[in-house]
Amino acid sequence: MDRRRTDSSRAAVMSTRVRISRCPGNDDLPLPSPATSRAVGHDLCAAVDADVLIAPGERVLIPTGFKIAIPDGFEAQLRPRSGLALKHGVVIPNSPGTIDADYRGELQVILGNFGQEDFTVRRGDRIAQLVIAPTVRAEWDEVATLDETERGAGGFGSTGSRQTRRPETNTADAAAEPGAPRVDRERT
Fold first, then answer.
1. CB–CB of 32/66 below 8 Å?
2. 161 — alpha (psi -120 to 50), left (phi > 0) or beta?
3. Which of the ends of the chain has fewer CB neighbours closer than 10 A, N or C?
4. Strands 119-121 and 19-22, how do they pair?
5. What confidence tens digit (pLDDT) does each residue in 86-107 have?
């Protein structure tokens, strides 16, 4: 892994080398590449031999014409292109699709049409973005109970849909021992 600076920014950009191989018959397709100098995703193009029609509600597997060797400690993520999602309802249903470091087959993208009209994928169309990201492997520490949190087991919309101002916390509560329940009181 090496660190580089972009010409347009002083921010450091982490990079790593990834080996890539073309599948036979795909010399006409460009290597995956970011659209701009500060983009994170590398655009992937469709390597279809003939146009593929995706009807509303249908899912299809689209080849990209490339195989990659992801370095240990990294993964590749397949992400949808926002323009396809907004304009046509075409998404990657398992987004982000994870490609593990030990996979050596052709990169393929599941595209789903959640739009109202047929969508046609043509050879060379940009269909997805590929992001290479570092990974962390969990080492599980099984315990009888977990610590309590303000959220608890609430999920799937349990925090509401609007941002609200939280009451100020009493300083005595903030100094309470860790794990003690928090008490919010409005100031008068």
1. yes
2. alpha
3. C
4. unpaired
5. 999 999 999 999 999 999 999 9
